[in-house]
Amino acid sequence: ASLGYKQILLASSSVESQYAFYAADAALECLLNYDQKMINTDGYSWFSFDNACSAPPISCEGVVATIPGGWSCTSALRTYTERLSLDGGTHCADIKIYKQSSGSTDLYATGYNVPCSVVGSTDARIVVRGLHASY
Predict the structure, then answer these.
(1) Count of beta carbons in the 10 Å neighbourhood of residue 22
(2) Model pTM?
(3) Beta-strand relationship, 77-86 and 64-73
(4) Among 35, 42, 49, 57, which has the highest number of CB atoms less than 10 A from its own CB?
């Protein structure tokens, strides 16, 4: 019985880990799609350092921002953060965009196996997985 119980726990944690990974993956794909959409036909990006310190909110395939994002800008770095509710509110992801004046971009997505309302709670078992893209 003890062995069976441990196997159930391991299988359950594996499934929860997959949910967190898929939330991070969906958020990263959303960021990549968003970044490409922000470049117009002239190659001018919303993230250009000639632009004001803002851009349209992230929107892709019904993804909803539960904590509206915010920009932080310096002469060398622009940072954007936001929390996204995924899968009809059953999973959550935090995203960060780092745009450097040198032209390089770093995208980070952290996925959670729980709804956004539970993230940060000390009473819940939360699995976190993260992904990073750089170009």
Answers:
(1) 17
(2) 0.80
(3) antiparallel
(4) 35
Backbone angles phi, psi at 37, to 5 degrees: -70, -25
What tokens were used for 130?
A: 């993260």
Per-residue model confidence as pLDDT tens digits over 61-103:
677 676 667 778 888 888 888 898 888 889 999 999 888 888 8
- Mean confidence (pLDDT) of the chain: 81
Q: Which of 70, 62, 68, 132 is nearest to 104 (CA)?
A: 132
pLDDT in tens, 30-45: 888 887 777 655 555 6
Q: Say how far apart CA 53 and CA 37 lie, in whole Å.
A: 17
